[in-house]
Design a protein that fits this description.
Blueprint lengths: L1 E5 L13 H15 L3 E7 L8 E5 L3 H4 L9 H19 L5 E4 L9 H4 L4 E5 L5 H8 L6 E5 L2 H7 L8 E3 L19 E4 L8 H11 L3 E4 L5 H8 L7 E3 L5 H10 L2 E4 L9 H8 L4 E4 L4 H5 L3 E4 L4 H11 L4 H11 L2 H19 L1
Helix pairs in contact: 7-12, 10-13
Amino acid sequence: MRIALLAHVRQRIAQPFMGGMESHSWYLADGLIARGHDVVLFAAGDSDPRFTIDPVVAEHYERTFPWAEHRGSAPLIAHLDAGYSAACDRIAAGGFDVVHNNSLHRFPIEPRRTAQVPTVTSLHVPPYDALHWFVKASATPGHHLTVTSGRQMAAWWPDGAPGRASVLHNGIDLAAWPYVASGDDSAVWCGRITPNKGTHFAVEAARMAGVPLTLFGQIEDPDYWAAQVEPLLGGDIRYGGHLDGAALAAEMGRASVFVFTPCWDEPFGLVAIEAMACGLPVAAFDMGAAREVIGEGGRFAPANDVAALADTIREAMAIPRHTARRRVECLFTRDRWLDACEALYAEVQAVAA
């Protein structure tokens, strides 16, 4: 099958990943190619050169439009509109069997576009104004929408989802996140370091619990880092940097608990299943899809309640490590995810024919 994979272009689709969306697109391209598909990655031009890349923009827009300039930036909107408009035109003329759209841009889901090439659109975020109404108007026979959790489905369609929408859980390659049978009694946190990921809450709770904690991830919001996270470092609390997958998996495997602190309606929580695959039970704020994803592999505290999270860290450490691993093996493997993607591709092709 000839597949156009249309990615978000804020960051490179390359390791070390800035977040779950970049990881999703990279592993999707890698997995589909391994299954024999002809995949063209429409992404930022500075993405991983191992893939066949058709640039939406020459370089990821974080480099051109820094963090502080993202919201409501007319030049950025014009830049992205021009890039995605041209990319959609190239896809329409490129002989593709299907598009998998991870872009979060309005152009690829226009009915005139999805009528040209059957499209599967994966929504990785809760509904927001800039995209919400375009999604609602995008239903056509050759367009299927996916969300990453039941919680996210209810957020997008509180009155009931359309027939052309379904839950498509994320999946990971278990070989990339090897199971480790025991930990060193420390905690680990990983993610984009930004307020809605709650990094400072993880630090405060670990200190209260008396458990060493290492933070990993990109410092996305430097002001938040400087004001609320960096001053808390020291002693048993350290920052371990922004690591590629193999190095991060090794660090994860050494720990005994993963701390997950979403402060928004988290649609899935890819880092949680990566940690669980390594054998780490999870201590989590009960936000978004956390309980749906983590299940018996963790314990939960009310959102923003640091004292309760500290208790939860200690409780989660008592969960057998194989419990967390087994949940990922049953529900969130890469093969299961890719099987579902291929089935959706076949479905939209058949309906559009």
